[in-house]
Design goal:
This protein has seven helices and no strands. By secondary structure, the protein is mostly helical. It has two domains: about 35 residues; about 110 residues, no CATH class. InterPro entries: DUF423. Its main location: membrane.
Length: about 160
């Protein structure tokens, strides 16, 4: 197959162009299985179409996690040392689940897994960072919802 197309080729050979489209559709159908619009045997490469979105989400999250870790290690000096532990816990969960975001396109249901991981990072780590920074436990109220989001994300891989 030639990568550079002749712009007049479609006008000169419309039947050949139509045949190529049918061959492409036949190839896709054979790879996915007959009638596989919602088939569970969908090849992994078809999920990669949304990979760039999830990799960008992981990139932003990873950058923020590393920045938060650096801030927590070198600058953050709370009056109550318990909040240093809260910050570090938030950062560990943030980093671990950011790494998991890289695998989102390879899962059976990437939108569910990725969304739940992202919600977990924001709700759990975000609220813990805020509680530690403000040194006020009341800011950690969304943390259990973030934890549940993490659990639901990992459980979604079972289905």
């Amino acid at each position: 197959m030639c990568l550079a197309r002749d712009p007049l080729a479609d006008e000169r050979m419309p039947q050949q162009h139509h045949d190529e489209e049918e061959q492409d559709e036949d190839l896709l159908e054979s790879l996915m299985g007959a009638g596989a619009a919602g088939s569970a045997t969908r090849p992994l490469w078809l999920y990669a179409s949304d990979a760039h979105v999830w990799h960008k989400v992981a990139g932003v999250s990873g950058t923020l996690a590393l920045a938060a870790g650096t801030y927590g290690s070198h600058i953050f000096k709370p009056q109550n040392p318990v909040y240093k532990d809260v910050w570090n816990t938030a950062n560990q969960y943030h980093l671990a689940h950011t790494a998991a975001l890289l695998a989102v396109p390879l899962t059976k249901r990437p939108q569910i897994f990725g969304t739940l991981l992202t919600l977990g990072i924001v709700a759990f780590s975000g609220s813990c960072y805020t509680a530690a920074l403000m040194e006020d436990k009341s800011y950690s109220l969304p943390a259990p919802f973030g934890g549940f989001s993490f659990i639901a994300a990992w459980a979604s891989l079972l289905f």
